[in-house]
Write a structure and sequence with these properties.
alpha+beta, five-stranded mixed beta sheet, about 325 residues, 7 strands, 2 domains, two-stranded antiparallel ribbon
């Protein structure tokens, strides 16, 4: 049987408050002056009701407002609720004592007990909130470091795809063939190849870039790849010029397209890249067997999107032969 350490700590604190509380309040009228243990028992009941109730309230607002950015709202809501609850418990408790002993409420130190209970409740609440905030802050720092590692890893994978020996060897073969037949095309191919690597070096440290810049890069890369495959790549672009200023994570398009392009001769019918009015860039892939392959590659990019934009990168299968991937886009003025 697993022991709830937090519950044991709360019980110990309640017992201590029950023992100490009568020493700071005038509870002479409760059961007579000499019955300290009876006063301690009543104090324990007060402490139990207040502590457990406040704990549940704090836990509720932690679940409702869990993020560090919601600390102010969570703290105000928790403090206000626990304060109101604490005062109600003290009032109801003394009201029940008046019924039990047939005394008037005026003979009990209601105000004094309320103030002490409220002070103790606020102190314990502050300790709980400080501990929670510290834990969330550490978790956020650890998550940020982990995402940095994944960012470096994903960018390394993109870079590796560009500089892998097979890609370079085929590029050099294409250049050699073009030099022999079409010198102008060889120069054009060489220029696009240099621009591709220049883009990688320039954008590898950027968090977000213009959609137009990313599209220009991917189109140059596709042009290089098309020369290597010696066949057209079935990709359609349906992007209006008025949305080209929106922002996207660098290399995200190629990150998604890479496994498709590597197997394009096998099962690809068509790829359509288009803009949806609700700030989403859609990639529609028509063909069979793509969902599992693409889904396996997405987690690092999904986590990076969630970290940088607080939005989700989604993938859905619209039919057996078609899937859609949705990348969030941001406006130029948004900072991350």
């Amino acid at each position: 049987m697993k022991i709830d350490r937090a519950a044991i700590i709360r019980l110990i604190v309640m017992i201590m408050l029950g023992l100490v509380f009568p020493l700071f309040t005038s509870l002479d009228q409760v059961g007579g002056k000499s019955l300290y243990w009876l006063k301690a028992f009543y104090s324990f009941l007060f402490a139990f009701a207040i502590y457990e109730g406040d704990f549940r309230i704090v836990k509720f607002f932690r679940n409702k407002y869990p993020d560090i950015s919601q600390t102010r709202v969570r703290t105000i809501a928790s403090m206000a609720s626990t304060s109101g609850y604490t005062l109600c418990v003290v009032f109801v408790g003394f009201w029940l004592l008046t019924l039990s002993y047939g005394e008037s409420m005026s003979v009990y130190p209601v105000t004094q007990v309320m103030l002490i209970a409220l002070f103790v409740s606020m102190v314990i609440g502050a300790i709980y909130e400080s501990s929670y905030f510290s834990g969330r802050w550490k978790q956020t720092v650890i998550e940020a470091e982990r995402l940095k590692g994944e960012k470096v890893s994903s960018e390394y994978e993109i870079l590796k795809q560009q500089v892998n020996p097979d890609f370079l060897f085929k590029s050099l073969q294409v250049i050699e063939e073009l030099i022999e037949s079409e010198e102008s095309q060889a120069l054009d191919y060489t220029e696009k190849l240099s621009q591709t690597y220049r883009y990688i070096l320039q954008q590898r440290d950027e968090e977000l870039i213009d959609l137009k810049t990313e599209i220009d890069y991917v189109q140059k890369y596709l042009s290089l790849l098309q020369k290597q495959l010696a066949q057209p790549l079935p990709i359609q672009w349906q992007i209006d010029s008025e949305v080209e200023h929106k922002r996207i994570i660098p290399f995200s398009l190629q990150y998604i397209l890479s496994p498709i392009l590597a197997n394009s001769t096998q099962r690809l019918s068509q790829v359509i890249i288009f803009y949806k009015p609700d700030q989403l860039l859609g990639i529609r892939i028509q063909g069979t067997g793509w969902f599992e392959l693409i889904q396996e590659t997405l987690p690092p990019l999904q986590k990076k999107y969630a970290y940088l934009t607080n939005q989700q990168l989604d993938i859905t299968a619209t039919s057996e032969e078609e899937i859609e991937i949705w990348l969030p886009l941001l406006d130029t003025q948004i900072q991350v």
